[in-house]
Design a protein that fits this description.
disordered C terminus, 161 residues, Alpha-Beta Plaits, single chain, 4 strands, elongated, alpha+beta
Length: 161
């Protein structure tokens, strides 16, 4: 029996578009497709996996302009800024991280657009979020590496078994 970590690593490597996309994974694991589906559902139910979905490469479908926006706020507004940021359509993800300058109350917001005007509009919306005191915009110049993360937790209770 393969561990949850090994299962997640193998499942995270991607599936081919075919009539039975789980069949090669099931064969590699020595399981039936029904057992693979049941395992995925269990991992999601246990909170070890957030979701099992397709990952879209944004550049080939026209989302060629993007920027990391750093919204400086304060402790009292961190959740409010993050929640408001994630509601902006052009935003793919938000993270609370400390800034290299030592500011612990920053929300890093990744914005994608099919044109510069989309990114500029999203940045303007971020600037208007209550509690945002300063905004830094770091435009992407090019993608050097992007891979899906899988099975990386060192915590055996999180991805054990």
């Amino acid at each position: 029996m393969v561990s949850d970590r090994e299962f997640i690593d193998l499942a995270g490597k991607g599936l081919k578009i075919e009539a039975q996309p789980l069949r090669p994974l099931a064969e590699k694991l020595g399981l039936s497709q029904a057992e693979v589906i049941a395992r995925i559902k269990r991992l999601i139910a246990e909170g070890k996996v957030r979701r099992f979905a397709a990952s879209v490469r944004h550049q080939p479908i026209g989302f060629s302009v993007n920027a990391m926006v750093i919204a400086h706020t304060d402790e009292a507004h961190i959740d409010e800024v993050g929640n408001a940021g994630q509601r902006i359509e052009a935003v793919s993800h938000c993270y609370h991280r400390a800034h290299p300058n030592g500011d612990p109350w920053c929300v890093y917001i990744m914005v994608h657009g099919q044109g510069q005007e989309v990114v500029d509009d999203a940045v303007a919306q971020i600037r208007r979020i209550p509690g945002v005191r300063e905004v830094e915009v770091c435009p992407s110049r090019g993608e050097l590496k992007k891979t899906s993360l899988s099975g990386v937790s060192a915590d055996p209770d999180l991805v054990g078994g």
